[in-house]
Write a structure and sequence with these properties.
four-stranded antiparallel sheet, single chain, 21 helices, binds adenosine-5'-diphosphate, ABC transporter transmembrane region fold, about 10% strand, 3 domains, Rossmann fold, six-stranded mixed sheet, elongated, disordered C terminus, about 625 residues, alpha/beta
Length: about 625
């Protein structure tokens, strides 16, 4: 609830407007209900409206006054005027209810807009490490399911809650004003209702939190299965997954049914309770009238009952709203939890002005954080890495998959922080630099090119919004992309479709190289930039990369060893440790792991009749 209340506080003026309009709506309902007394009087032409009632009771006096105004026209006409009066008050009531609903609609849309913005911004600002320990399906379900749930339960409930509290308070005030004794009697019976209803709703909250979790699990399972569909089929695991899903879905459905049962029970039970009270009032009120000494006239008693009956729906809605709010508390907590996650510090620290002397990994070890405290520590992914990359040098990282290459370069972008040892830039620990300034100086080209449904020029300028068209073209030339871009229907203004699907893999890659070039990166990270390409594309991309690499400090993860034979230093990683390092010639002469890898690829190369052997 705090989550919503804090947000509503920022919109207090809108809330106040809503409450005011809703109150006006109720006041006009009350006016309509009270005038029933006059109507009865007119109808029965009864001039004897309880003398006791007029004694100091403003309501009775007002009614008396209205009656006096109308009766001068004679009963027939008075009834017509009276009908017009009721029509007007009733229309006003509807008008204010409508205006209140409009005010609330604005408020709720604004609130949801803010939460969506906050969630999205949070998603971008949380450290990459967060996503190691949290499932994507879980995050998506907060953005999708939880938001819907939040609107349906919490916001709706809030609207109903305020509406019914305002109504009940005003009705009660009026009831007290008409007759204190009778209303006191009614209030004595209220705790009975509350007791019964709260018994029903108590378990609702616990169940609904679990419901959320189970629903998220189903979504996560769907997502995992989509991602791993090939594997599932290849391992003929369809039945296994199906069974597993059905079981989860069955448990989830069972729980839902029981939650619904409880929600549905709240309404008839409270209605029954309402009826019990109405009968109580009838008996007690009649007693008061018969004794004729408690200021209650029969007409006013009818108005009293009308008002009381009018109070039952909001009272019922109040209990529903409370149970809904309880149900929604789970998703509120989940939204809050995500919004409370720590963000990556962005601009604190020194500004990284560019590499002056070297990058140095000094005894660096790293392991991914465990998902929660229940999980045992994860294994070391990097183990005592000592490596110096002087400014302007290019270092290649090779090794089998899972040997820690990507993790090592991720440390340089500070996607993760080292667990032990130090990563130094120009002799200073990398943590001393601000993340934003650091990343703005690092260019990354990886095998997944992240292109957007926009023009070629906009895709190249991604991350450098101030770049001029000349600069964009210059970057494209360096990246060997200018010629093919000019052949596109609208050149640089051609829209490349979703994820650049209208381009070949090599073309996409060259666009992403141009993008990196445009930022004039000081340090370049190439992460298997050519591994997903065919030989011809690879040649073009490699040409582009060779141009880009000139004079730059670079860390290169290469799958095809032929592409890195000329770099200054080749580092061979195995299970997170450096096992060999040196130039291509040195390592070939050493005859160790590197030579083995090269030879393996040569055999593969011959098999595939593509020559990828390194130039010696
Ligand atoms: P490479 O790039 O050489 O293939 P990685 O650096 O990707 O190796 O992975 C090294 C090890 O770290 C692997 O055992 C891998 O399972 C583990 N690993 C990689 N990314 C994550 C992650 N996000 N969460 C947990 N473990 C990871």
């Amino acid at each position: 609830m705090k989550f919503t209340v804090n947000r509503l506080k920022r919109h207090w003026a809108r809330v106040l407007l809503f409450v005011t309009l809703a109150s006006l709506g109720v006041l006009f309902t009350i006016a309509t209900a009270l005038s029933v007394a006059d109507f009865l009087k007119l109808l029965f032409n009864d001039d004897s409206m309880g003398g006791a009632a007029t004694s100091g009771n403003l309501v009775a006096q007002a009614l008396e006054w209205l009656y006096g105004q109308l009766i001068v026209y004679g009963t027939g006409k008075a009834l017509v005027y009276f009908s017009i009066f009721v029509l007007v008050t009733y229309t006003l009531k509807n008008l204010f209810c409508y205006l209140a609903a409009v005010a609330m609609a604005r408020l709720r849309c604004r609130l949801l807009q803010e939460i969506r913005n906050d969630l999205y911004a949070k998603t971008l600002r949380m450290p990459i490490g967060y996503y190691v320990t949290h499932r994507k399906g879980d995050i998506l379900s907060r953005f999708g399911g939880d938001m819907i749930e939040y609107e349906e339960n919490v916001i709706n409930a809030f609207q109903t809650f305020v509406n019914s509290v305002v109504s009940i308070m005003l009705y009660l005030l009026m009831l007290f004003y008409i007759n204190v004794k009778l209303t006191g009697f009614v209030l004595l019976m209220l705790p009975l209702i509350v007791f019964v209803i709260s018994g029903i709703t108590r378990r609702l909250r616990r169940n609904s939190v679990e419901l959320q979790e189970r629903s998220a699990r189903l979504t996560a399972m769907m997502e995992e299965s989509l991602m791993g569909l090939k594997i599932i089929k290849a391992y003929t695991a369809i039945d296994f997954f199906n069974r597993h899903f059905r079981k989860q879905n069955r448990d989830y459905t069972k729980l839902r049914v029981s939650v619904f049962r409880r929600i549905d029970m709240a309404s008839p039970v409270s209605e029954f309770m309402g009826n019990v009270i109405v009968i109580g009032i009838l008996l007690f009120g009649s007693l008061l009238i018969m004794r004729a000494d408690h200021g209650l006239s029969p007409e006013l008693f009818v108005s009293y009952i009308t008002l009381f009956v009018l109070m039952i729906p909001p009272a019922k809605e109040l209990t529903t709203a409370i149970s809904q709010m309880k149900k929604g508390r789970g998703c509120e907590e989940r939204l809050q939890e995500m919004l409370d996650e720590e963000e990556e510090p962005r601009s604190e620290g020194l500004t990284f002005e560019g590499l002056q002397s070297s990058i140095e990994f000094r005894g660096v070890s790293f392991r991914y954080r465990a998902a929660d405290s229940a999980e045992t520590e994860r294994p070391w992914v990097l183990d005592d890495i000592n490596l110096t990359v002087p400014k302007g040098c290019q270092v290649a990282l090779v090794g089998g998959s899972g040997s820690g290459k990507s993790t090592l370069v991720d440390l340089l972008s500070r996607f993760y922080d080292v667990s032990q040892g130090q990563l130094l830039l120009d002799g200073r620990p990398i943590q001393e630099y601000s993340i934003a300034s650091l990343r703005s100086r690092i260019g990354v080209v990886s095998q997944d090119t992240m292109l957007f449904n926009d023009t070629v020029a906009a895709n190249i300028a991604f991350g450098s919004p101030q770049a001029s068209r000349e600069q964009i073209e210059e970057a494209a030339r360096v990246a060997n992309a200018h010629d093919f871009i000019m052949q596109l229907p609208n050149g640089y203004d051609t829209n490349i479709g979703d994820h650049g699907e209208s381009l070949s893999g090599g073309q996409r890659q060259r666009i992403s190289i141009a993008r990196a070039v445009l930022r004039h990166p000081d340090i370049l990270i190439l992460d298997e930039a050519t591994s997903a390409l065919d030989t011809e594309s690879e040649r073009l991309v490699q040409q582009a990369l060779d141009q880009v690499l000139q004079g730059r400090t670079a860390l290169i993860i290469a799958h095809r060893l032929s592409t890195i034979s000329h770099v200054d230093n080749i580092v061979v990683l195995e299970s997170g440790r450096i096992v060999e390092q040196g130039t291509h010639h040195e390592l070939m002469a050493l005859g160790g792991r590197y030579r083995q890898l090269v030879q393996l690829q040569q055999v593969d190369g011959e098999k595939n009749t593509t020559t990828t052997e390194p130039k010696e």
